[in-house]
């Protein structure tokens, strides 16, 4: 019997236990990928290189992207994002992950006066139509937002893919192989319930925990139907990288 080939490997940087890969992780493993999760908040070192991996996923969390004193692994994570970008490794940043990519590669992140929390209908921008990952989106897709920081200026050369709220950049592509979202395609009602224990943030947003969890529960079928294909298209980029058939950025 011939052993199966090693599956494509994705390095996942998880910043907090309350911010796991969630739905996104399930969709990627369902697409045949192996996720290697590092948890620097528990003492795992952030790798210096991505040579051993076919993709990089950097998740969200409560830190600001330059909150290095309280979260001392952030400089290493930013450096890893730069390395992945320069090597053309398929990369995806979710909320904090996208903010880290933004500041490391020449953009700017600013703090909002009021957190943006809840399910919002977003706007698909024209450039998304030809995008390898976000192509195929139509209408006003719903997404879960939970952020205080926002990407106010994207890095040079970045292509805006989605907008639709007072935070101007909800999704973007940088080069040929790096993507970021301000919103949370990985979120489930249980994950959001954990976030909702941070009542101070909710009070600043003028929202209640039951309200926000209920919004996502009501929209869950639509959000999963929208973002599962996006995750799978990103997984396809990783399989191409694994097979040696992905062109560099």
Automatic annotation (TrEMBL):
For the Glutamine amidotransferase domain, which residue ranges apply? 33-190
Keyword terms, alphabetized? Aminotransferase, Transferase
Organism's domain of life?
Bacteria
Which InterPro entries is this protein grouped with? ChyE-like (IPR044992), Class_I_gatase-like (IPR029062), GATASE (IPR017926)
Name the CDD domains on file: GATase1_1
Signal peptide bounds: none
GO-annotated molecular function: transaminase activity
Q: What Pfam families does the annotation carry?
A: GATase
Ranges that cross the membrane = none
Xref: SUPFAM superfamilies: Class I glutamine amidotransferase-like
Question: What name does the UniProt record give this protein?
Answer: Aminotransferase
Provide the species name. Streptomyces chryseus
Task: Print the organism lineage.
Answer: Bacteria, Bacillati, Actinomycetota, Actinomycetes, Kitasatosporales
